[in-house]
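TICKET: design request
STATUS: open
ATTACHED STRUCTURE:
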């Protein structure tokens, strides 16, 4: 039997397969069924979810853990819009994601087609680039270019809209176009020498990175630079910025730095727009999206989400020694090589910052052993710690409980909700994490509010035989907002944040998973052991004390 003629959909799947994509996270819809059909018989698995945002969260987790683009495929109109909030989280986390969205036919454009929407315009604020496919024969080129864009420069999401008539149209063989991109290179030799000289001159230099440089090979380049120069390196990836509880006591030392090297980290809200540092601190910025100086304030401007430009406080230029458009990871490697050619005195500054980051208050040890009810969040961390130390992947999400987990554990790597500050991603992220790391347990610690966003992705985990363990810190309220209400308005004006102490464990059981209710601290370890041994998606529902997140010398304004 002769092979069926190639279509835009088959060209799309061909391009994904050629790029090494083996999983597509998706939720079905009539505009993308041609792509589903084209995957039959191919080495590409469809992981179909219960919500479009969950598919993007999974692609996001895949991108962060593997450094390969995670691919999400959703349907048109409402399906596309459902995916966009998760896409914002991926953008703020520097995560390489490709969102493919079915779209109404080109031939009906502007005529009120079913689910017609300017999807490219809707996606553009939260992606590096977005466009619509126009030529079935060139679909492969479009996909190859989008995948390359997602991983180049500052990694991030890219969107392609897929009109139905492009997917179903005949796609004759054409010569492939090159997807090669001219991204920013490493700093030049002269600039590298100048930056190394500034680092050597500083008494307390500090390296701060964006999320992408806190992961994988990029992180290794930063660590090498830190080891050679003695400048401590910290990743800024939390929506609480410099008040990320994971930073612990290091937060209080940021103001002592006399030089800050920013690698892929804009001077945004998370650094209080530079006000987290002492007034005399000099700043060196290497970023793929530094776009120059503001004409009025003469301050560096950074490219923001969707390409908008962010200006900084007027005094920033006085403190900025150098701001260059450059690949930060490649630049870190070059700076380390240049720095290795000279001697560096060991001042103890790096050890001081790293010790402060690891140190915890003395009172924490008692909290980790506490038997009180409701259960202290640190007692939950104590039960999780042996599994995390043995190599379990940790996913942490939610308001105050999520912050306690991030402060109370030291995982090999962590997946958190990121600088975007939204919650709800932990459960779908945990599924993708287990698919990416099949030989490692995955623990997803989340608040009760977080669990409600994507609880039914436990069904997805069951259908695909993915044994994740969710740990729900159940304090029966939106505790982050409740804490803010207490702080700013007083207890008598706390409103709209109460939840029920629901039996989330029974949700898992009803779907066919494993459920545990924990009301006493002594039951934590046995419940976790049973959940891990069950071999099924599990929910350990822990009744916790609703405490405000820990702070460590918090920088004002957060």
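STATUS: resolved
RESOLUTION: sequence designed for all positions
ATTACHED SEQUENCE:
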């Amino acid at each position: 039997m002769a092979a069926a003629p190639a279509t835009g959909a088959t060209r799309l799947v061909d391009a994904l397969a050629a790029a090494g994509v083996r999983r597509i996270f998706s939720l079905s819809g009539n505009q993308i069924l041609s792509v589903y059909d084209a995957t039959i018989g191919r080495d590409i698995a469809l992981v179909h979810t219960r919500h479009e945002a969950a598919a993007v969260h999974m692609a996001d987790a895949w991108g962060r853990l593997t450094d390969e683009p995670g691919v999400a495929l959703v349907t048109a109109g409402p399906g596309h819009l459902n995916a966009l909030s998760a896409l914002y989280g991926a953008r703020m986390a520097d995560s390489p994601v490709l969102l493919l969205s079915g779209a109404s036919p080109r031939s009906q454009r502007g005529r009120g087609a079913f689910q017609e929407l300017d999807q490219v315009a809707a996606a553009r604020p939260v992606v590096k680039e977005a466009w619509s496919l126009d030529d079935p024969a060139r679909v492969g080129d479009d996909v190859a270019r989008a995948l390359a864009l997602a991983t180049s420069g500052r990694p991030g999401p890219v969107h392609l809209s897929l009109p139905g008539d492009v997917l179903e149209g005949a796609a004759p063989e054409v010569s492939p176009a090159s997807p090669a991109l001219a991204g920013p290179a490493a700093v030049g030799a002269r600039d590298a020498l100048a930056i190394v000289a500034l680092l050597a001159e500083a008494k307390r230099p500090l390296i701060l990175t964006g999320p992408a440089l806190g992961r994988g090979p990029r992180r290794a380049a930063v660590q090498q630079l830190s080891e050679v120069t003695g400048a401590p390196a910290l990743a800024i990836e939390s929506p609480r910025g410099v008040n990320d509880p994971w930073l612990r006591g290091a937060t209080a030392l940021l103001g002592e730095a006399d030089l800050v090297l920013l690698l892929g980290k804009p001077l945004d809200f998370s650094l209080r727009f530079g006000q987290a540092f002492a007034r005399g601190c000099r700043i060196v910025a290497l970023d793929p999206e530094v776009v120059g100086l503001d004409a009025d304030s003469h301050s560096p401007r950074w490219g923001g989400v969707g390409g908008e430009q962010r200006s900084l406080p007027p005094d920033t230029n006085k403190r900025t020694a150098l701001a260059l458009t450059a690949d930060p990871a490649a630049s870190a490697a070059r700076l380390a090589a240049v720095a290795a050619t000279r001697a560096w005195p060991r001042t103890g500054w790096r050890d001081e910052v790293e010790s402060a980051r690891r140190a915890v208050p003395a009172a924490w040890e008692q909290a980790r052993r506490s038997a009180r009810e409701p259960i202290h969040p640190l007692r939950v961390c104590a039960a999780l710690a042996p599994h995390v130390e043995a190599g379990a992947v940790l996913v942490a999400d939610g308001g105050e409980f999520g912050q306690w987990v991030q402060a109370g554990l030291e995982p090999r790597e962590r997946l958190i909700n990121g600088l975007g500050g939204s919650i709800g991603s932990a459960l779908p992220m945990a599924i993708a994490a287990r698919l990416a790391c099949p030989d490692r347990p995955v623990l997803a610690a989340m608040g009760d509010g977080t669990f409600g966003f994507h609880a039914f992705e436990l069904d997805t985990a069951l259908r695909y035989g993915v044994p994740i363990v969710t740990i729900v810190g159940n304090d029966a309220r939106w505790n982050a907002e409740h804490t803010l209400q207490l702080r700013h308005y007083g207890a008598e004006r706390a409103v709209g944040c109460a939840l029920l102490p629901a039996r989330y464990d029974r949700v898992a059981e009803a779907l066919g998973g494993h459920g545990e209710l924990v009301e006493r601290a002594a039951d934590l370890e046995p419940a976790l052991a049973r959940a891990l041994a069950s071999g099924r998606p599990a929910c350990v529902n822990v009744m916790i004390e609703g405490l405000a997140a820990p702070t460590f010398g918090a920088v004002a304004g957060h």
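CLOSING REMARK: The CA atoms of residues 346 and 462 lie 53 Å apart. The radius of gyration is 24 Å.
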